[in-house]
Amino acid sequence: MANQKSNPRLISVKPSGKKEESLVGLVHDVVRQIPPGRVTTYGAIAAVLDLPNPRMVGRAMRTATNIELPAHRVINSTGHVTGEHPLQRLQLLKKEGVKVKGEKVVDFRDLFWDPAKEL
């Protein structure tokens, strides 16, 4: 039997304790753990879930119909708010105390929440 590579980070982000879950469910589990007033990137989520492309995270985020999912806390690697409904996302970030200038998060590096270190 082939030796399967395990990824302990992947297991730790699943609050349900289930061993198998959809990609969308895994992405949403990580996003739900981003603290208010902090941001992370599509790439950081892709890295912690061992996904080959951050765009996979973006696709999974598009399926979010749950208003409880803090999708506004996921931004691109340059600190810009992208994706659907950018004005609404900017307003939600501002309500959490995140300073923005145009469509960019001010002090992005200071506010960056790294799921690889935090989970």
Structural overview:
The chain is mainly α and 119 residues long. The chain has one domain: Arc Repressor Mutant, subunit A, CATH 1.10.10. The chain is 41% helix and 7% strand. It has a two-stranded parallel ribbon. The longest helix is centred in the N-terminal third of the chain and has 10 residues, at 23-32. It is globular, with a radius of gyration of 14 Å.
Short description:
This protein is mainly alpha-helical. The protein has a single domain, classed as Arc Repressor Mutant, subunit A, CATH 1.10.10. Helices cover 41% and strands 7% of the residues.
Summary keywords:
119 residues, mainly alpha, Arc Repressor Mutant, subunit A, two-stranded parallel ribbon, two-stranded antiparallel ribbon, 7 helices, 4 strands, 41% helix, globular, disordered N terminus
